[in-house]
Design brief:
The complex is a heterodimer of chains A (224) and B (420). Chain A has 224 residues and is an alpha/beta fold. Chain A has a single domain, classed as P-loop containing nucleotide triphosphate hydrolases (Rossmann fold, 3-Layer(aba) Sandwich). Helix content of chain A is 36%, strand content 27%. A six-stranded mixed β-sheet of chain A has the order 6-7-8-3-9-10. In chain A, a hairpin with a 2-residue loop joins strand 9 and strand 10. The radius of gyration of chain A is 17 Å and the shape is globular. Chain A starts with a strand and ends with a strand. With 420 residues, chain B is α+β, with helices and mostly antiparallel strands. Chain B has two domains: 194 residues, no CATH class; 192 residues, no CATH class. Chain B has 15 helices and ten strands. Chain B is elongated, with a radius of gyration of 33 Å. Classes of the chains: A alpha/beta (224), B alpha+beta (420). At the A-B interface, helix 2 and helix 3 of A face helix 1, helix 12, helix 13 and helix 15 of B.
Chain lengths: 224, 420
């Protein structure tokens, strides 16, 4: 199987307020279609690691490969393009643009990418909403829908450019167990049926146990 | 690659959902530009009116025979005294005539010059207006009335009667309004004038002249050239002054110098004669621009403030846009385009506001004894100022938007997402 994401000897320091070694020699791989969760206590550096893997944080040592290509050291424009095209994000707080409709929120990354015509983008966005069972709220303002719906919209937005990997930072942390279950099932389905790789940071032991592989972190190191 | 459609769409949504703030920012620009247009239209209108008051009546080059002492006194011609220190007491003006020698050929010559619009002959003479036993001193100028109307807007200063009436009346006179008031005379009445040599002529009043300058209106009257020649008992080639109107005022100085050299006459150009006037106009313009720029800078700070606040409010949006693949430059352009949209909309409204305000001022009655032809406040509707206004609106909002948008560009999405 193809390797989608690879971290090699990643080290990260926080320089303020005091020098602090957050991540120590992190190395691992995520293969295509794999559903990986990262677990660990608060402050063990798992979110920090995720931001580095997502290319948003560039202040680290080591090497990061996406699709077997080195992305470390690329300029910000290029990194923005990589995030846009190859990575989908789901956050704990759903982070939708509250003034736009659900459909527009989902369409925005595709419009930025600009590889399809507006009508094709709209079609694709409706298709993603349909997969997630929320096509009926497409025209609603993003600020007017429930938390569970918001998270599904965020997933639809993450999927719109058909990325190679989806990263989640506590994507179920803010949801009740019913909606958390729902989101997990969606992820599982994407991984099993569409060959999508997933990398999810979570506190939720139940959630992690159901994933293909758990990366356990402690004090900035992978411990299992 | 910049996808303008997406960027403008986001900018538009931001502006429309915060319509109140947008409106306040745009109103700041509107008032700034509106008051700039009003102020500059009013000030330049006023300047132009004051300029016209003097300059329209002033020839671009005024040619006459100056009564003055010879520049080179006879002793300077003696070789023997060349290296001596000579003192001449009681220098008298040189004996010369008032009339311009060969005036008519000079006029013909001047009118052939391509820079010259017209060269007008005049005869200036001192007279007395006779009212019973009282003699009032004054000036009578012989003019070619229709040419004066054409080149020096003479018609504007004829407050009663018409210039044509003077042309058609042999012994007609356009009496100064001040003198007419003093002597209780009106159109159709006769006024007796006496020349310096004592001869008395009755002239028929065909109109009243008012320049707006009281001292002038108290002494000055006009008659046809031929009438004045007859009163003075001079021939048809007796001309004391030539007034030249040019196509462009810049040619005045070189032409004046050339005429002085060529004909040995005195030739005064308009800039030399009215240097202090130019200074006044320049200072008024300076004040206008200083006030306008202050207004626009204040409006610029308003936009800066509102965009800054908007960016703080939109931190999450900025983070999410960056996380989903919008680059810092895209985010910057989103906020820049908001600033420029505010600038364009506010600026155009400002132009409209300025136009309305200046139209209102243009219709406010403003009547003064001193300015007979002004009925309302003067306004200069020059398109150029409207171009300046809209350009300034766009430039100032551009800079007001640049600093906050630069900040938005640099926002690190990780910081925002972490802090939640």
């Amino acid at each position: 199987m193809k390797t989608v994401l690879e971290a090699r000897n990643i080290n990260k320091y926080f320089k303020k307020p005091v020098l602090f070694h957050v991540l120590k020699n992190i190395s691992f791989k995520v293969r295509q279609g794999e559903f990986v969760s990262i677990m660990g206590k608060s402050g063990c550096g798992k979110s920090t690691l995720l931001y580095i893997l997502s290319t948003m944080d560039t202040d680290y040592e080591g090497q990061l490969f996406l699709n077997e290509e080195l992305v470390t050291g690329e300029n910000r424009e290029k990194l923005s393009h990589i995030r846009n095209k190859y990575i989908g994000f789901v956050f704990q707080f759903h982070y939708l643009l509250s003034e736009f409709s659900v459909l527009e929120n989902v369409m925005l990354p595709a419009k930025k990418l600009g590889e399809k015509s507006p009508s094709q983008i709209e079609e694709a966005a409706m298709e993603k909403l349909r997969i997630l069972g929320i096509e009926h709220i497409a025209q609603k303002r993003a600020s007017r829908i429930s938390g569970g719906e918001k998270q599904r919209v965020a997933i639809a937005r993450a999927l719109i450019n058909d990325p190679v990997i989806i990263m989640g930072d506590e994507p179920t942390g803010n949801l009740d167990s019913y909606n958390a279950e729902n989101v997990f099932n969606i992820f599982k389905d994407l991984s099993d049926n569409q060959g999508l790789s997933l990398l999810v940071v979570t506190h939720d032991k139940d959630f992690a146990d159901k994933t293909d592989r758990i990366i356990e972190m402690g004090d900035g190191e992978i411990i299992g | 690659m910049i996808n303008w459609k997406v960027i403008l769409n986001i900018a538009k949504t931001h502006l429309l959902t915060k319509i109140k703030q947008t409106a306040i920012a745009a109103l700041g620009v509107t008032f700034g530009i509106g008051s700039y247009i009003t102020l500059v239209s009013f000030m330049t209108g006023l300047n132009k009116m004051l300029d016209d008051l003097i300059l329209n009546q002033t020839p671009h080059v005024h040619i006459y025979n100056e009564i003055e002492p010879s520049k080179k006194q006879p002793i300077a011609f003696y070789e023997e005294f060349k290296n001596s220190f000579n003192v001449v007491h009681s220098i008298k003006p040189k004996q010369s005539q008032k009339k311009i020698h060969n005036a008519l050929p000079i006029i013909d010559y001047l009118e052939k010059n391509e820079h010259v619009r017209g060269a007008l002959p005049q005869i200036k003479t001192q007279i007395f207006y006779i009212a019973g036993s009282i003699e009032i001193g004054g000036n009578l100028t012989g003019i070619d009335i229709m040419q004066e109307v054409e080149f020096f807007n003479f018609k504007d200063y004829v407050v009663k009667g018409t210039p044509e009436a003077l042309k058609n009346t042999n012994n007609g006179i356009l009496l100064g309004s001040g003198i007419a008031e003093k002597m209780s005379l009106g159109i159709g009445d006769r006024v007796q004038i006496s020349t310096i040599s004592g001869e008395i002529f009755p002239l028929k009043i065909v109109g009243l002249y008012q320049s707006g300058i009281a001292d002038l209106d108290n002494i000055q009257s006009f008659a046809n050239i031929k009438t004045v020649q007859r009163i003075l008992g001079e021939a048809e080639n007796y001309i004391t002054d030539i007034n030249v109107k040019l196509h462009t005022i810049e040619d005045a100085l070189p032409l004046a110098q050339k005429i002085e050299q060529q004909f040995q006459l005195k030739a005064i150009d308009i800039n030399t004669a009215n240097a202090q006037f130019e200074t006044g106009s320049n200072i008024r313009n300076l004040i206008t621009y200083a006030v306008s720029i202050t207004l626009l800078i204040v409006a610029g700070f308003g936009i800066y403030n509102i965009l800054n606040m908007l960016i703080y409010e939109k931190m999450n949006d900025i983070a999410i846009l960056k996380a989903t693949g919008f680059s810092g430059k895209d985010v910057q352009l989103i906020f820049m385009s908001q600033a420029v949209i505010i600038g364009i909309v506010g600026g155009i409204l400002g132009l409209i506001l300025g136009f309305i305000l200046s139209s209102v001022i243009d219709n406010v009655p403003f009547e003064t004894e001193a300015l007979p032809l002004i009925k309302t406040y003067p306004i200069n509707f020059d398109f150029f100022y409207y171009m300046v206004g809209i350009s300034f609106a766009m430039v100032s909002t551009f800079f007001a938007g640049y600093l906050p948008s630069q900040k938005a560009k640099k926002i690190d999405p990780v910081d925002i997402i972490r802090s939640q």
